[in-house]
Design brief:
mainly alpha; Serine Threonine Protein Phosphatase 5, Tetratricopeptide repeat; 509 residues; 4 domains; single chain
């Protein structure tokens, strides 16, 4: 039965209903007349009643037909809606299959790249082990190359520290990078955390569209010149920076800087954070002259807001010193590092990791100027403090690693086995050599010894640094095994806070 036939049936049914309604009125009138007559005819009354019952039955059946037609129309509308949904789901399924195929291709390409990089890494490690036996001049050249200090970031609250093997920015850093001095609104927090998670995993194809969609929505609801927009611009800039898209990141940071200056004021901590991020970005591109005034302005804001003796001011001084060092402004570099040291030691104490970090950076500055004695003293100071922190005061029986190395150098002609490695083999475990700063100090002092012709002392320190690295890798493997076998207790309780704290403390030369 076609749709047109259904409509005709309903139309005819409604016409019949009208006729039946008219008949019912006539029969009611007829019954009233018969009831009022002097002589009531029972037969006629019975006939009229039966007719009334038939009329009522006809009306009921007609109403059922009309209601059934309305119900069928609703069902048809629902069917159309379901067909549309099925069609949309089929289209989405096709799109997802295409995305899955593309992702699988990318994964296969990534796995091939990882395999190739592993082979290259093994080759480089082999070449590095061979270089230690090369001529002195070659070692000196390698030392100079190792002293090329990139502009690294020392603000955990503003900018991620230099990442090993170009790994993505850790999630516990992203939140603070873009928003120092400005609290993220609750309505943005979920999206903000999603972007952080995807970016930290290197899933930029998801993080970037999320940021862009958030920016579009924010600009529609709040306008372009709003602090929330500046927050998302900062986050997107850091995602682009992790992809080495420095030009796009710089444009976004400049835009965020303009918005924050306009809405929060030129001396707000969030403005200093954006200035620092922009300065670091310029430093990565080798634009040290452009980065330096931005870093100085960030320093001025922090001094005005936090005071000249605040630890964050010292961190900004470290950044400024690194920029100046790349421009060979060594007098300014020494001044900034020494001032940062004073702040750290006064506010955080001599055992704070930032003290060792800054001492190591200052020693690097001395090396570039050829002040080898001053650099050596600072390296020894870092190692001595690490030793005293774990083993107590220095004495004849309790010696730091550099003294052991120099004694081995003195005794090498008498008996190479006279001072066995076992006497200080545990030093790298207990003296916190898994700290990148102390490990770097071991390597730097070892290279300095090698420059001086003290090869036995250099081998001692470099061997200790290599053992510390191996020990750290073994601990990671062991923790992975325990995490699977111990009823997933470690996965439930986790060490995320400790891991985050350890990452925040990591420092690079």
């Amino acid at each position: 039965m076609t749709q047109m036939a259904q409509e005709e049936i309903v139309s005819n049914t409604k016409t019949v209903m009208q006729g039946l309604e008219a008949l019912r009125v006539e029969h009611v009138t007829l019954m009233n007349n018969l009831a009022e007559g002097s002589k009531t005819d029972p037969d006629k009354m019975e006939i009229v009643k039966k007719n009334m019952e038939n009329i009522e039955l006809g009306l009921s059946e007609a109403q059922v037909i009309v209601m059934l037609f309305a119900h069928l129309q609703n069902i048809e509308a629902e069917k159309q809606k379901l067909r549309t949904q099925v069609k949309r789901l089929c289209q989405e399924n096709v799109w997802l299959r295409d995305e899955l195929a593309i992702t699988q291709q990318k994964l296969q390409a990534s796995e091939q790249s990882v395999a190739q990089l592993e082979e290259e890494k093994k080759h480089l490690e082999f070449m590095a082990s061979v270089k230690k036996y090369d001529e002195i001049q070659e070692n000196e050249d390698n030392l100079e190359k190792s002293r090329t200090d990139p502009v690294v970031e020392l603000f955990p609250e503003d900018e991620a520290e230099e990442r090993n093997n170009m790994s993505p920015t850790p999630p516990n850093q992203f939140a603070n990078h873009a928003n120092a001095g400005y609290e993220i609104p609750a309505r943005l927090r979920t999206l903000h955390n999603l972007v952080i998670q995807y970016a930290s995993q290197g899933r930029y194809e998801v993080a970037v569209p999320l940021c862009k969609q958030a920016l579009e929505d924010l600009e529609k609801t709040s306008g372009h010149d709003h602090p929330d927009v500046a927050t998302m611009l900062n986050i997107l800039a850091l995602v682009y920076r992790d992809q080495n898209k420095y030009k796009e990141a710089a444009n976004l940071l400049n835009d965020a800087l303009t918005i924050r200056e306009k809405t929060l004021g030129e001396n707000h901590p969030a403005v200093a954070a954006t200035l620092n991020n922009l300065a670091v970005l310029y430093g990565k591109r080798g634009k040290y002259k452009d980065a330096e005034p931005l870093c100085k302005r960030a320093l001025e804001i922090r001094e005005n807001v936090l005071g000249k003796s605040h630890p964050d001011v010292a961190k900004q001084l470290n950044n400024l010193a690194l920029l100046c060092q790349n421009q060979a402004k060594y007098e300014e570099v020494e001044m900034y590092y020494k001032r940062a040291l004073e702040i750290y030691e006064m506010k955080l104490g001599g055992d704070d990791p930032n003290v060792a970090k800054t001492l190591n950076n200052l020693a690097s500055c001395y090396l570039k100027q050829g002040k080898y004695k001053e650099a050596e003293m600072l390296y020894k100071e870092v190692l001595t403090r690490a030793h005293e922190r774990e083993f107590g005061a220095i004495n004849g029986e309790n010696k730091p690693i550099w003294q052991v190395a120099e004694e081995r150098e003195e005794n090498k002609l008498k008996n190479r086995e006279n001072t066995p490695y076992g006497e200080y083999g545990g030093w790298h475990k207990a003296a916190k050599v898994d700290s990148p700063t102390v490990t770097t100090t071991l390597k730097n002092l070892g290279a300095l010894y090698r420059r001086q012709g003290k090869y036995e002392a250099a081998d001692t320190l470099e061997d200790c640094a290599l053992r510390s690295k191996k020990e750290a890798l073994d601990l990671v493997k062991q923790s992975k095994v325990l995490g699977v076998s111990d009823d997933n207790k470690r996965q439930k309780s986790g060490n995320s806070k400790d891991d985050n704290d350890d990452h925040n403390k990591r420092v690079h030369k």
